[in-house]
Automatic annotation (TrEMBL):
<dbReference type="InterPro" id="IPR036779">
    <property type="entry name" value="LysM_dom_sf"/>
</dbReference>
<dbReference type="Pfam" id="PF01476">
    <property type="entry name" value="LysM"/>
</dbReference>
<feature type="compositionally biased region" description="Basic and acidic residues">
    <location>
        <begin position="128"/>
        <end position="144"/>
    </location>
</feature>
<feature type="compositionally biased region" description="Basic and acidic residues">
    <location>
        <begin position="1"/>
        <end position="59"/>
    </location>
</feature>
<feature type="region of interest" description="Disordered">
    <location>
        <begin position="1"/>
        <end position="158"/>
    </location>
</feature>
<dbReference type="InterPro" id="IPR018392">
    <property type="entry name" value="LysM"/>
</dbReference>
<feature type="compositionally biased region" description="Basic and acidic residues">
    <location>
        <begin position="101"/>
        <end position="117"/>
    </location>
</feature>
<protein>
    <submittedName>
        <fullName>LysM peptidoglycan-binding domain-containing protein</fullName>
    </submittedName>
</protein>
<feature type="compositionally biased region" description="Low complexity">
    <location>
        <begin position="118"/>
        <end position="127"/>
    </location>
</feature>
<feature type="domain" description="LysM">
    <location>
        <begin position="149"/>
        <end position="193"/>
    </location>
</feature>
<feature type="compositionally biased region" description="Basic and acidic residues">
    <location>
        <begin position="70"/>
        <end position="85"/>
    </location>
</feature>
<feature type="compositionally biased region" description="Polar residues">
    <location>
        <begin position="145"/>
        <end position="155"/>
    </location>
</feature>
Length: 196
């Protein structure tokens, strides 16, 4: 696995983890809102039952409850209904806020992942361009080396004579061939001839 693959995996993993975390928080918020909503509904149902019972007792002449007691129970039932409705509305508001926050975080994670992908692509393109440049340089050197002339020393040749024959400087030719003593050459030696 290459360097850029590792960077991609690290960035993608990080973005995916943030997105997953945002989804998890949204799920938890929904669960909490559902729990609060269920409690509010239960309170509202209980209040409705109490209100119905109070109304029934108020209408029942055999019941010993006074009208004042029935009115009080009705008022308490109405308050319980109101509180349950408010709690349910607050739970809905919390769910909406949690979902909006989770969507925002997920969008941010996606944007970060997209930026990372663009950066990764740019880095890969840069690396490819550098590689192409290195390859071109290497090929140029190989071509230059292939085009470089050579001369096999014959009996009676001198380095100065060989250099003069090819129209190049004798000192440059000695340097190119790593000769410590340009006056000491032997037949059969192969010398590189600098480009003229």
């Amino acid at each position: 696995m290459g360097f850029f693959d590792k960077v991609k995996d690290a960035l993608t993993g990080s973005d995916e983890a943030r997105a997953e975390s945002a989804r998890e928080r949204a799920r938890e918020a929904r669960e909490e809102a559902d729990r609060v909503t269920a409690e509010a509904r239960a309170k509202a149902d209980e209040a409705q039952r109490e209100a119905d019972e109070a109304a029934r007792q108020a209408d029942d002449p055999d019941d010993s409850m006074t009208a004042e007691d029935a009115t009080t129970k009705q008022r308490l039932a109405d308050e319980a209904k109101k509180e349950a409705a408010e709690t349910e509305a607050e739970a809905g508001k919390q769910v909406a806020q949690a979902e909006a926050k989770a969507q925002k975080e997920a969008a941010r994670a996606e944007a970060d992942a997209e930026r990372a992908a663009v950066d990764q692509q740019a880095a890969a393109e840069q690396q490819a361009a550098e590689h192409r440049s290195d390859v071109a340089e290497q090929r140029a050197e190989e071509t230059k080396a292939a085009q470089q002339r050579t001369h096999t020393v014959q009996p009676g040749d001198t380095l100065a004579g060989i250099a003069q024959r090819y129209g190049v400087d004798a000192e440059e030719m000695a340097r190119l061939n790593n000769l410590d003593n340009p006056e000491l050459i032997y037949p059969g030696q192969v010398f590189k001839v600098p480009a003229g």
